[in-house]
Amino acid sequence: MRRRAPLWLFMRRADVLTLIRGLLVIPILLAFLFPSPWAAVAGIVLFTLGVLTDYLDGFFARKDGPTKEGKILDPLVDKILILSILVVYVYRHVFPLTPFLIILIRDLSMNGLRTLSKKPLAANLGGKAKTVIEMVLVYALFATDLSFRWRHLSLLIVSPLAWLAAAAAVLSFAHYLTIIVRNQGLPLRGVRRRRARP
Predict the structure, then answer these.
(1) Is residue 190 one of the residues assigned to a domain?
(2) Distance of CA 117 to the CA centre of its chain
(3) How many CA atoms lie within 13 A of 152 on its CB side?
(4) DSSP states of 159-194 as a string?
(5) How many folded domains does the chain comprise?
(6) Residue 33 in domain
């Protein structure tokens, strides 16, 4: 009997990289769950690898063309990676709870907005700012486990960055919501137009 070829051989390069980033979630979380200087260094290296795969899968998606699976998996894996890391540090009382809840609700709501949208929602400035701030936040959180000096410096910027990420999350969500309303049209506007016709 012939062996079946591995599924990843039939996947596009961007989707393979997304899958790799998804698999990195487990070792990255383990580095967070067992805080130590060596675990922090390992976490920084693995997370940086995840960031690189995110950049490369975007590059290959533009070059080869995105797939339906990739459009769903890419943002989903990104959310799982960031939110799971933040959960650990909320539990450890390093990351403030309120900004985390704002980011969590925004990310969950975005899935609903994408299903309602008639057109693909391109990343806006607020969404990009949120992503960049979250990446810096993750590095700052890892740095809290490196040494006492790094922990003290990192804790000074974690809270401001957390609130900045929450603000960017709200602004980008409002922008996406405005785009969807414009694309679909307001119901009241449609009713008025119908009544105005002779």
Answers:
(1) no
(2) 19
(3) 2
(4) HHHHHHHHHHHHHHHHHHHHHHHHHH--HHHHHHHH
(5) 1
(6) yes
Residue 178 to residue 107: CA distance in whole angstroms: 16
CATH of the domain at 52: 1.20.120.1760
Q: Which two tokens stand for residue 49?
A: 């690898």
Other C-beta atoms lying within 10 Å of the C-beta of residue 134? 22
pLDDT one digit per residue (tens) for the chain, 198 residues: 455 544 444 467 788 888 888 899 999 888 878 778 888 888 889 999 988 988 888 788 778 777 776 677 777 888 888 999 999 899 988 899 999 999 999 988 887 776 666 666 666 677 778 888 888 998 988 888 887 677 777 778 899 999 999 999 999 888 888 877 777 665 534 444 444 444
pTM of the model: 0.77
Residue 62 is part of which domain span? 10-183
Nearest of 50, 47, 41, 48 to residue 21 by alpha carbon: 50
Residue 131 inside a domain? The answer is yes
Determine, yes or no, domain membership for 116.
Answer: yes
